[in-house]
């Protein structure tokens, strides 16, 4: 469906809806590419589920403030986030929204600053940030300059800027095998990085005024990634075990810092991000990979009551 170039809250609602639909369409490939941090074949599903939560929240939020819309949608997504990729997307979206709060329309410069804020926030919530992942795509997007030679603050400038973001994200995806050893071994690109490219591509198309626009470049990249993933699945590789534990818990900042350290001692892929402020602290979304559920739940339970709890097997057999 064609629209005029747009930069307001209604356009952002369309973006999240389109990003969700595109992620659903590409989920099989993203799942097949999923080898880091564990090969549990769910990156596409996790991202699609999380972005759907953001899209559904945005659809019912009655605000013309672009920043408020994206911030609240990000918070809603964080409460329902699935996996590393979904959690990082939610954190990123919330930070982007907070940077844009107070604006009824976006400009290339305001979005550039918002992308930088989202990139910094995503890096900050990880205990061990790794290049060659979704983080590298966020970093590439945050580094894109505002186009010159076009009217400052115009929708046309924003369109050209986001086209540049999509191009930079695509380039970042293509070099992920050079940055991460497991990807060099499999000869594939990172699933989370490719998923974030799908999200940025949907943003560029929506703001550009053509939601169903030319996807040939992205589709060609995904087709190539799918072929490589099929070859990689035929090769011998390690089988991973353990579980992913996710929950929400109310904590003071000090307790949250201590819990993050304690979880790092019993597990990996620790992510902790504040969702909303409470009376004497915050609601924190917690993510960790551990050998057994009790390894994480015992530590979390000593600090607070875990709600919205999910425990998911990381075994490939259960993927």
Automatic annotation (TrEMBL):
Q: Which PROSITE patterns match?
A: DHAL
Q: Which domain of life is it from?
A: Bacteria
Alphabetical list of SMART domains matching this protein: Dak2 (SM01120)
Query: What InterPro entries would the database entry show?
Result: DegV_domain_contain, DhaL_dom, DhaL_dom_sf, FakA-like_M
What region holds the DhaL domain?
Answer: 10-205
What Pfam families does this protein map onto? Answer: Dak2, FakA-like_M
Q: What is this protein called?
A: DhaL domain-containing protein
Recorded source organism is Kocuria aegyptia
């Amino acid at each position: 469906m064609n629209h005029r170039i747009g930069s307001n809250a209604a356009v952002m609602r369309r973006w999240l809806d389109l990003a969700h639909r595109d992620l659903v369409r590409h989920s099989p490939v993203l799942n097949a590419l999923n080898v880091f941090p564990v090969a549990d074949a769910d990156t596409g599903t996790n991202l699609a589920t999380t972005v759907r939560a953001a899209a559904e929240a945005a659809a019912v939020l009655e605000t013309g403030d672009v920043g408020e819309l994206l911030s609240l949608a990000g918070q809603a997504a964080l409460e329902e986030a699935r996996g590393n990729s979904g959690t990082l997307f939610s954190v990123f979206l919330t930070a982007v929204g907070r940077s844009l709060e107070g604006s009824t329309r976006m400009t290339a410069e305001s979005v550039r600053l918002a992308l930088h804020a989202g990139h910094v926030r995503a890096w900050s919530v990880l205990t061990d940030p790794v290049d060659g992942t979704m983080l590298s795509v966020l970093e590439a997007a945050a580094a894109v300059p505002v186009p010159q030679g076009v009217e400052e603050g115009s929708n046309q400038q924003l369109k050209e800027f986001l086209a540049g973001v999509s191009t930079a994200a695509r380039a970042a995806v293509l070099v992920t095998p050079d940055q991460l050893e497991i990807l060099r071994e499999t000869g594939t690109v990172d699933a989370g990085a490719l998923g974030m490219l799908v999200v940025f591509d949907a943003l560029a198309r929506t703001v550009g005024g053509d939601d169903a626009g030319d996807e040939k470049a992205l589709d060609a990249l995904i087709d190539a990634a799918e072929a490589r993933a099929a070859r990689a699945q035929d090769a011998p590789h390690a089988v991973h075990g353990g579980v992913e534990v996710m929950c929400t818990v109310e904590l003071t900042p000090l307790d949250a810092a201590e819990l993050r350290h304690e979880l790092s001692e019993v597990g990996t892929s620790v992510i902790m991000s504040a969702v909303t402020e409470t009376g004497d602290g915050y609601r924190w979304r917690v993510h960790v990979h551990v050998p057994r559920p009790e390894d994480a739940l015992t530590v979390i339970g000593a600090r607070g009551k875990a709600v919205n709890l999910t425990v998911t097997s990381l075994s490939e057999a259960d993927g």
